[in-house]
Predict the structure.
Amino acid sequence: MDFGYPVLTVLIAFPMVAACGLFFLRAPQVVRMYTFAVSILELLLAIPLMNFQLNAEFQFVEQIDWVHQWGLQYYLGVDGISLLMVLLTIAILPLCVMCSWTYIGKRVKEFHFCLLFMTSSVLGVFCSLDLVLFYVFWEAMLIPMYLLIAVWGGDDRKYASLKFFLYTLAGSTLLLAAIVAFRITGGTFAIPDLMQMNFSFRFQFWAFLAMALAFAIKVPMFPFHTWLPAAHVQAPSAGSVILAAVLLKMGTYGFLRFCLPLTPAASAYFAPMMIAISLVSIIYGGAIALGQSDIKKLIAYSSVGHMGFVTLGIFLFNMRGVEGALFQMLNHGIVTGALFMMIGAVYERSHSREISDNMGLGKYMPAFMFFWGLMALSSLGFPGTNGFVGEILVFVGAFQENTWIGFLCVPGALLAAAYMFRVSLKMAWGKPTTASKWRDLNAREWVYLALPAVFVFWIGLAPTPFFNIVDPSINKLLNDFDKRKVAHLEAEQPMQTAANDILSVLADKK
Amino acid sequence: MVFSWLHFAMILFLLAGLLFACGPLILAALFAPKARGGDIGMPYECGMVPYGSSWARWGVSYYVYALIFLAFDVDVLYLFPVSTAYTDAAGWIPFVKVFIFLSFLILSVVYFWAKGVFTWPRRIQ
Amino acid sequence: MSHITLIVPELYFLLLVVALMIQSCGTREWKPDVEKWLPFGAGLGFFVSIVAYGSQGYLFWDVYKVDMMSQFFKIVIAFGFYVVVLNASRKKTISDEKRTDYYMLLGFSTFGLMLLASCVELITIYLALELASYSMYAIIPLRAKSKGAAEAGVKYILFGAVATALALYGLSYIMASQHTTYIAELAGKNWHFADNPMAVAGLCLFLGGMFFKLALFPFHFWCPDVYQGASNETAAFVATMPKMGAIVVLVRMATFLKPGLEVTTLLAVLGACSMTFGNLSALVQTDLKRLLGFSSVAHAGYIMVGLVSGTPEGLAAAAFYALAYLVMNLLVFWIISRVAVDGRNLKLHDLNGLYKKAPVLAFSLAAGAFALVGLPPTMGFMGKFFLITSAWGHGYNWLVIVLVLNSALAIYYYLGLFRHAFTEDTASDSSPVPDNGWFASAGAGMLAAAVLLAGIIPAPLFNFAVAAGKSLFGIVAVGGGH
Amino acid sequence: MNAFLQHLIPLVIGAIGAMVWLGLNALVLVYCERKFAGHIQRRPGPFEVGPHGILQPLIDGLKLMGKQLLTPDNSDAILFWMAPILSMIPVLLLFMPIPYGPSVIGMKVNLGLLLILAFSSFNGLAVILAGWASNNKWGVLGAARAVAQTVAYEIPLLLVVLTISFMTGTLDLSEITAQQSGHIGNWFIWKQPLAFIIFIVAMFGETNRAPFDLAEAESELTAGFHTEYSSMGFGLFFMAEYGYMVVISSVCAVLFLGGFHGPIPGIDGWWWMLLKTYALLSFMIWVRWTYPRVRFDQLLNINWKWLLPLATANLLATALLIKL
Amino acid sequence: MSALTLYQIVALILLCAGLFGLTQRRSLVGMLICVELMLNGAGLSMVAAAQLTEFNAVLGQLGTLFVMGLAAAEATIVLAIVVVVARRFGSARTSDITTLKE
């Protein structure tokens, strides 16, 4: 699999290098063209990834010493789980460029710089196999996202951007502590090596909590979700697209990549809690979405619900559940991304995100409504679309695990149908206000909506290639997990251990 | 060790000094008249009624001289231990060290001189 | 005298100071412009100290030790001086005839700090520290007719004098109970409170003197006031250089701070208080320098994290963080000095719209601010990362947790810098027009590049630091410096 | 117990001797000063009390004792009265380490010079206390001047003293005297002429004597720092001043003029010391009535621009010569 | 009570007097005097510590000598700054010198 050059490094570095080139350009139109070209080139650079072998190994591995004394490595690689995410990220980039072609009017250069920088760091997150490297990319992504919201966002952007930044950073600082703890206990930062180790339950307990907090905020799971609606509503449409399609996935990816393999016993111990929270997220997200009058907010809350399905699937610990979670991640990226792009498109026409200002589009913008309807159906899991594949797998997994969990999911799915139909019906057949003068989709919009639509059908109707990619990795993950999840769980009283730990720290302080 | 005859002698002589100072004072207090009242306790300004406070604002030069002194006095202090050991120390290194030390002292005088500290009257900003 | 080659960097700086002094004594007519040659002189000093990095040995009855650690800090200090001189060379706040004296005092302080980097005996440390401090006391009020500067100066020196007195008092207790003042010998002594209360009390007091320089929690009062009162250029010096001196001493003394000792715990507690207090106070500041003042209190706390572990790695991490701190702060102060072209104190809102007025400065400010937060891929992150990695697992895990929580806390106000510079457009009319010349941009750009580069490729510097840390413990450095 | 007494008795004798010596000197010097002044100004000076007015000082003292001890209003009474006492207390101690004869010495102290220099500084403190506490314009001004001046002249004085001690390697006055034994050529005045001159000049500055008597400066400041003092308060300052004069003359005699050694070997004795001290004192009195007073800035600049660099250079040269 | 303890108690009294004065004094010069008091306490403690234990006595005296020198230098600078303060504020009382606040 040697291509004579480091594939992943080039993938990660290319957007960043190209972003620096932006400084030499002036005219906004040139900047857009340039960035678009860069994103297409990035797609082309991803072609070698087609050579991915369908097994559970990490592939395209690159390993160089970074800070030798400290055991830091520049360690990249992808397996089935991350490959999909990488592809998703790369594919989203040109769509983002296209959907902000006219949407972004000011500081165009900086905007595209942020987009490219963002892509680089997100790719880094999905590719890195060294904990610190992971963390570096994880944090690096914050700054461009912050800027996307804070500079190009809506009226309340200051509050939203700050909230986004503080929430995510607060979560990730503990992640750093956990990373360091892994290094001291396990002796290395390399994730594949750490996956082979058995840590004491006490250690896992705390490490899991620290990591889970960071990931849960990112996902976002129920009590930590409040930054998401604010950020989504205020962000420009490209920002929302990236946020929904890629950033949220980083949280669930974190669960899959770190929590399950590194702290299996703690994951098993906390699974009921996580499942409960996921269920709450699903129902809560759906219920709140149902009451929204702002389309973007509605989709944002629907994201909370969808991501609840993902975390639910992950913490079911069975093949179907995790598969479903992965698919749901992918689907959510495609579908919600597309929905946000469409909201952007309609916002450019109506300058409002209220449902009441965007009604009756079925007559004047049929093409738009077609895509909207398709994505809405996919979002609620209509059979034949990709959403169905993901959701049904999670359902199956849930019923496998416990019937009650399965039953509790059902209202979530129903709620999704309810709010999606509600908004779609109003948008299609409501009493039009000013829609009559609007032009239907132009060519550019056709392109960037058609592409997700293709994937909606592809995954919905023929998901086999995707299964082939992810299955080996998931199998390995679950096997490992099953082997190691019982580490001394019974021997120790977890909550008591935790209490003792806290007390001893307090005693130390005195 | 803690208390030597030198200490004792010093205290003795200081006490003698105290006696020598207080004796005449006490005698004077016994002999002297004790007048009161009038302007007897008025500050002496050659017979005029005092005008204003006795606290005048001095030129800043006074302060500057005081500051230089503070620095110099203690620096010279360092030479005392050196002086007792200088003749016994062999070789040129002691001289070099004394030279360095003293040249810094001279350098500082030159610095003050060049900065116009010794120019009087002067308004230092 | 036979080893005079060991102290070439120190001698060079002494020479520089003497040259400045001669110039400052000269008549007005004769005087060449000091800014024309001094930057080159300072740059050469940096170069000289880099060249001298490999020297090792003892001088002056073993009170003066030239080793890896001292050379590391000498390079750092020389670099700091270079940047400070460059930064100050465009200052407007001091009249022409006082500039040479100003640089002379700066140079003298730097010279003292260089000496401090090598001292391994407590009395000598004290002397070098005072040598470095006095010139600094004198430069703080040097800000044309500013009331605040005078106030800052007097506060700094009075608190400084008290701290010194306490440190000396502690020194006398150490003398009385441990019978030596050499750090190498002290390292072998018993520092348990139960066995030797007087020594521990003395050590705490002595460390207090260092904490004052470092602006650690209970000794931090002066810090925000001095930053705010002193001129921007002076603040750049005060904020960075003396801390290097304090850190090198603490790093040397940390060789006998084994984890579990009362002193070590005290250090950890103070560190925790310092970061929490500094960050909380910084949250509400609007004056930029005052904000940085509180932030440096917090950073002093971070450095404690490296010291408490008592391992070579910990000390190396502290040293590395010191370097990072220096570069980050110099960067931010560079930008402050360039933005405040008339030498005023900047408020946060004075930064509004900086990205438009001076993009390079704005970008560098972003790099600096995020480095101070500890966001990757900057030097600040690497420094913080090394700190917590070194400290984890040595009994002070809670301190590490406090540190990471504080980093999250700190984000808010550092983000404020960034936010004002990048996202706020509404610049008030009174905001200064930043200096956008090639000099300002190049300096900021280079410092920002240093911050980023050292964050992406920290290995060479860090290896040097680790070798230095190991040399303190007598472990032979293997392949250090590369 | 016996050893104890052996130590104690000489000390007590020394203390009493010092008191007597100081008292006598005050009387004699007052008389001398007035007589000298008179003759220099071509008038007889005191002539009424006793033959040639020889009892005049005694009567003056009695008169002072009969005056009221006035404490001015608005003054700080405690500090006001502490000042003259403080000025007097250390004077006796200063005589302790000075060898007036081979056996006429209070106590042999190995750091005698340092002791004298240290305790003589009390005078400055007393002066400033006096000026400050009396809350009088002349007083405050005089005190400020006195302090600026005495402290300034202390430095060249120290440097000169150091020169001698660099040569001798000791700070013990007896030891220094011993090194000048033999004939007149061994006196340090020949080896250190510059130092001697500096010492003499600094001596005037230190004791606030004309032409450097800016602190009192009758014509400008009435009486300077002791303007408000009457009766014995004034008397104490007066006595202390003469005491300091005697001390510094004695020290000068010891350092430069061979102490109690005669010009030729074999005739050493306390009389030589007495002679030298009084020669120096007479010189001081002579200068006072001969030379005009300098201006204050001149006074300080003589010190800082001339005496100090010269003294430093002299010390450096001495150090070099010793090594050669 | 050993001689060392005695000296140290005296030194401690000096130190505490200085600290107490520092908090009580309302003028900068007064504060300076208090600081000097503290420094002298430290010097005394140092010389006693060196003299009365097995520590090298000469070193202790030397250290104290340094303390004295540096105390003088410190006083010089403080006074110089106080002069500056007095010229800029027209007062040397601590209550008047409060321009720096958040």
Remarks:
- The first helix of chain A runs from residue 7 to 21.
- The mean pLDDT of chain A is 83.
- Chain A has 21 helices and two strands.
